[in-house]
User: What shape does this take?
Amino acid sequence: MQQQHIHCSVNNCHYWSTGNKCVANEIIVVNDAFGSQQPDHIDAGEAKQIEATPAGTCMETCCKTFVQKNSADINADNVYKTQ
Ligand code: SF4
Assistant: This one.
């Protein structure tokens, strides 16, 4: 499988790493409306079941996998760190 490199500057995310790297094994990006309505456990693992969430600009998209460092919800989504 092709190795992806996800760069991210949201450094208070549990999956953020030095050099602005995302070290989540997988992420999902959705539109803001969907992201704000869904609980934390709806995440990359459900990607195939999530219907399209179109956006007009980049400002209407969000990383649904984001979870704050030291949050109690870190394990809610079955996403894990790769390093
Ligand atoms: S999970 Fe999303 S917000 Fe968190 S580091 Fe990765 S890309 Fe950034």
Notes: The CA atoms of residues 12 and 68 lie 6 Å apart.
